[in-house]
Amino acid sequence: MTLAHPDRVLADLRAGSKKQLLADLARAAADVTGLHERQIFDVLVERERLGSTGLGNGIAIPHGRIPGLTRVYELFARVTTAVDYEALDNRPVDLVYLLLAPADAGADHLKALARISRLLRDGPTCAKLRGSDSEAALTSVLTAQYPVNQAA
Known about the structure:
single chain; alpha/beta; Mannitol-specific EII, Chain A; disordered C terminus
């Protein structure tokens, strides 16, 4: 499992709403996972119905478990213009870390959520992410604490 594989980082995602953001993330994740983007979108929307994955401070970690996945997939996006995400602090979101796990992932899913949460709670890291202007720069920041496993 990796926290940010270089081809799973989007530097300038443009979305006008939470729904559009989730749809764009689902489309990008479909390219990586081989699943249909509608299946991913539906899982993300269903999870949001349980409560917003917007943690506050402009950060969201949408996530879900999907039958048919064989391992955990992650994707990071910096949103060009922050969107209303119904976050816990009501602030718009501009840093989004998507996590998709197999339906039976259990502890792996929770461990990945915890690692991502720790990473994004770090103020200097978030400042660097907001100041990065390319996928390469974002990947460098994201992998500074968690080296990329190129085989994943």
